[in-house]
């Protein structure tokens, strides 16, 4: 038996958690077949409860190290050395704050971010927000397609054009994992994260970076904003780290835990879910920083400041590190990243569609539609421009994600800061203030980027 009662049909749904806070009663949750499916022991120790909550954070962390992030980190490390490590650190801190708000919204209100937007805004606002969320997911999918195709090419010699088409078959992987239970999805993701971390640990040891410069690289400089090329890559790293679809994803995934309905149980659940996501995002930072450090210690140090393509990095690693195993590890980690991102993009796409427009379609059909939308531009670029065009497309996809961020961050901050909507679970003022600053910084950076493009 689950610790929480099963969701009621929309026409019999329970009253909103805070009278007058929401316009409509809470309906059926997204991912309803997984809702409260993981039991949380009521009388267990803190560590036992935390163990039950570990999982969603790692699915969220996957989005912070997807193949698109590889392109931006490789380009940033090879061109500017360790300077953009500060951006990776700042982006990760932003991510920790925002994902904590997602956990608070999901547990405290019983709604994911998409459902909250549908309730709070009229259709002329919520539908454009839905379209923007779908664009963000398509941009994420684009990065996954290219990254997975390149990984298949590097490891098995499969042509990129064929690899792009093979990625459409990942829908069967998702269906198989969903059929055997949500814990298996989490185990699959965590196992691949472990492989990725091990691959980079070995490569970093081979590269032997200047650790003094690494530490100094985590200190921000004004050049990041003043230098247009650096700002473009910085925004790409930001878009690859704080990803819009992850905000929708996390607010839905926390509800897979059967934490109970009382106020103390929900407050404890918010704390445990926040710890889970913070630990996972610290792991994501280590992997993101490793990609940039590897590029800086290997390519920038040797004067190769134009390395941005994944296959180019793969080719150069062997002669520059003096080991034939380095490029193989690079390819394995890249393929694992692509497979992991596939899982999270599928779940977030389901949450976004069900939450915003209250429509349910078969997961395999939803996945195929999203994947086809992303495959078209990937196939065109691969066929017409070959390998040379994939790096620019990857970086562009991450900038698109960054431009979508305000439209997910602003509603999240507003909802969790609202006493009427969140009641006793409202975010502390200091947390809302920090989140508001993060939203302002993201919007300001995006405005500057657009001005730079317009003014040439």
Distance between the termini: 61 Å
Residue runs with pLDDT of under 50 for 5 or more positions: 1-6, 8-19
From the alpha-carbon coordinates, what is the Rg to the nearest angstrom?
21 Å
Shape: globular
What's the β-strand tally? 2
Number of helices: 21
State mean pLDDT (0 to 100 scale).
81
- Strands ordered across the widest β-sheet: 1-2
Beta-strand percent range: under 5%
Biggest sheet architecture: 2 strands, parallel
Structural classification: mainly alpha
Element layout with pairings:
Layout: E1 38-39, H1 46-53, H2 56-62, H3 67-80, H4 85-109, H5 113-120, H6 123-156, H7 160-166, H8 170-180, H9 182-207, H10 211-217, H11 223-226, H12 228-241, H13 244-253, E2 257-258, H14 263-300, H15 310-321, H16 325-357, H17 363-385, H18 387-404, H19 406-416, H20 419-422, H21 429-455
Parallel strand pairs: 1-2
Helix pairs in contact: 2-9, 2-13, 2-14, 3-12, 3-14, 3-18, 4-12, 4-13, 4-14, 4-19, 5-6, 5-16, 6-7, 6-16, 6-17, 6-18, 7-17, 8-9, 8-16, 8-17, 9-14, 9-16, 12-18, 12-21, 13-16, 13-19, 15-16, 17-18, 19-21
Description of the structure:
The protein is mostly helical and 456 residues long. It is built from 21 helices and two strands. Helix 4 runs antiparallel to helix 14 (263-300) and helix 13 (244-253) packs across helix 16. The model is unreliable at 1-6 and 8-19 (pLDDT under 50).
Keywords:
single chain, two-stranded parallel ribbon, 75% helix, 456 residues, 21 helices
């Amino acid at each position: 038996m689950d610790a929480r009662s099963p969701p009621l049909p929309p026409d019999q749904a329970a009253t909103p958690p805070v009278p007058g806070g929401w316009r409509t009663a809470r309906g059926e949750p997204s991912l309803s077949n997984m809702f409260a499916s993981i039991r949380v022991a009521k009388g267990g120790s803190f560590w036992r409860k935390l163990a039950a909550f570990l999982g969603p954070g790692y699915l969220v962390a996957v989005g912070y190290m997807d193949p698109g992030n590889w392109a931006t980190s490789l380009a940033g490390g090879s061109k500017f050395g360790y300077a953009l490590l500060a951006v990776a650190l700042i982006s990760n801190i932003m991510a920790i704050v925002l994902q904590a708000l997602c956990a608070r919204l999901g547990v405290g209100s019983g709604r994911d971010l998409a459902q909250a937007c549908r309730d709070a805004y009229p259709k002329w606002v919520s539908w454009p927000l839905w379209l923007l969320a779908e664009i963000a997911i398509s941009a994420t999918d684009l990065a996954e397609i290219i990254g997975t195709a390149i990984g298949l090419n590097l490891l098995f010699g499969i042509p990129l054009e064929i690899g792009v088409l093979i990625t459409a078959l990942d829908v069967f992987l998702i269906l198989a994992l969903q059929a055997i239970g949500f814990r298996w999805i989490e185990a699959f993701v965590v196992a691949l994260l472990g492989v990725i971390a091990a691959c980079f640990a070995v490569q970093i040891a081979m590269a032997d970076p200047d650790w003094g410069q690494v530490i100094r690289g985590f200190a921000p400089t004004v050049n990041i904003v003043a230098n247009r090329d650096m700002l473009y890559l910085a925004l790409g790293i930001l878009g690859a780290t704080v990803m819009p679809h992850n905000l929708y994803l996390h607010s839905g995934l926390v509800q897979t835990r059967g934490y109970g309905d009382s106020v103390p149980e929900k407050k404890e659940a918010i704390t445990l879910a926040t710890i889970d996501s913070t630990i996972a995002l610290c792991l994501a930072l280590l992997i993101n920083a490793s990609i940039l450090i590897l590029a800086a210690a290997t390519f920038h140090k040797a004067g190769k400041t134009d390395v941005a393509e994944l296959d180019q990095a793969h080719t150069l690693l062997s002669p520059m590190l003096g080991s034939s195993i380095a490029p193989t590890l690079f390819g394995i980690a890249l393929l694992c990243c692509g497979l992991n991102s596939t899982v999270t993009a599928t779940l977030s796409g389901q949450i976004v569609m069900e939450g915003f427009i209250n429509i349910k379609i078969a997961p395999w059909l939803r996945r195929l539609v999203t994947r086809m939308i992303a495959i078209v531009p990937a196939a065109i670029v691969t066929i017409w421009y070959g390998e040379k065009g994939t790096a620019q497309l990857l970086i562009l996809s991450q900038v698109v994600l960054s431009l979508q961020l305000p439209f997910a961050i602003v509603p999240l901050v507003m909802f969790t800061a609202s006493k009427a909507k969140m009641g006793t679970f409202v975010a502390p003022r200091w947390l809302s203030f920090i989140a508001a600053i993060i939203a302002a910084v993201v919007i300001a950076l995006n405005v500057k980027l657009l001005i730079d493009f317009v003014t040439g």
